[in-house]
Amino acid sequence: MTSQERHDRIDDVPRAVADGSGSEAVPAGASVLDSAITTVVEVEHAIRRLTALRTVLLHGAVRLVPLAEEALLRPASSAARSPLTGQERELARRALVADLAAALQLPESTTSGLVAEAEVLVEDLPRTLAVVADGTMSYRHAQVVVEHTADLDTDARGAVEAAALPFAATSTPTGLARRVRRVREVVHPEPAVVRHRRAAADRKVRIDPAPDGMSWLSAFLPAAQGHAICDRLDHAAQTLAGPDEPRTVDQLRTDAFVALLLDDADGTAARSLAGSGVPGADEADDRPGPDAALASLVRAVVPRVAVTVPALTLLGHDEDAVLEGYGPIDPETARLLAAGAPSLTRILTHPETGAVLSVGRDTYRVPADLRRHLAVRDGTCRFPGCGRPARRCDVDHVTAAADAGATDASNLIHLCRHHHRLKHETSWRVRLDAMTQDAVWRSPSGRVHVVPPAEPGPVWSPPAGRRSPGRASVRLERDGLDGRAGGSAGGPGGTGLVDDPGPPPF
């Protein structure tokens, strides 16, 4: 099905709901909700239009710098002035940015970023700015396009922009970034391995203060390592969670993180931080406190990452792989991950569209095979705007098994636990389009939202002579806890996907 045909089918859905030809009538009160949401959306569109206007005006202000350099640098004078040096011109620009920042009550760094983005959007990405100006997408969407085209030439930048804009109206900025990353990897003239090595040289850890004696600790590091770290913390938290555990999952993840980094085997470091909020810090005896035990548990977890690698990449070719929950990664990193993977699953994709044609069946156990197929098809939770990776979601029957819903791909989607409960306990409704595999949602107010399946292959057709990342691929996973199968959102010892628990309570 072509993109236009897909959009034509999508356009028919709201009309069916509006004229009553849909399967369900809009419930009482929905019109009131729809009116309130419509007003909010109209205000948001007005904000977007004004933001686009601000962008154009910022660009215009910067263009005035050459006409006002002397006023920006020194008091006006009729005396003859020598030509300004490049450094003086840059100082004039900085003076304008500082003037704008003071007037806008914004930090100079923030204002400088807005000015730089304005120059790119007006001069290099006018179509993106036009979409913001008509209210179709937010400025944050535009920033995603700017960020992912910063180091591209004109042709490559145009290709990324052309691929991004059709999805902007129905994607969150995070969802748009996932798509744009894939296109960027295809069109970028510099090999991914070279870019990754250069970017990795800038890895860093930083701490930022927060209110009430708290702080944010963040790290800039390779994507595979970051996802592995989060997976290890998830497994530790899920192992500890239970009816007798008072801490939330977020608290457990944080405590596992702290325990692992401050672990010195006997818990001395944790106890020395008494009163800091570190679990076990108030232990008075010399026995290993909860921190030491928790650190031992976290160390025992073997983190898992799931990567789809073109078969030719494993043979030495330079085709990018896809890290689940992130996007494209360079071939060198993919081969290193593959070398330590305990299992591989064959996936056959179309060489041009990247659509999944088949998933390998090394075993004839249909449920496991079906799960692998669904994970590739869905990629993430299929609720509008949710980007939680499929392996951390429940597999849910669209039509409940109790209502004769089939346990097959045409009736199963991934939903994170939060949206799984929302589907069962509220008036949100979903159906799965048999032809496109789109998840078509209807909100309590009667609005329709369409979530297409993941597209593991390219969303932009490469020029003649360039190979598509599609073709035969293998999916590799590394997992485990003390040598056993690793846990997931479904709890320790799981397969990475959770059986459909049926209607809540789960």
UniProtKB/TrEMBL annotation:
Residues 483-496 have a biased composition (Gly residues). GO terms for molecular function: endonuclease activity; nucleic acid binding; zinc ion binding. SMART domains: HNHc (SM00507). Residues 1-27, 446-506 are annotated as: Disordered. Residues 1-14 have a biased composition (Basic and acidic residues). Residues 369-421 form the HNH nuclease domain. The lineage of its organism: Bacteria, Bacillati, Actinomycetota, Actinomycetes, Micrococcales. InterPro entries: DUF222, HNH, HNH_nuc. This is HNH nuclease domain-containing protein. Belongs to the Rv1128c/1148c/1588c/1702c/1945/3466 family. It comes from the Bacteria.
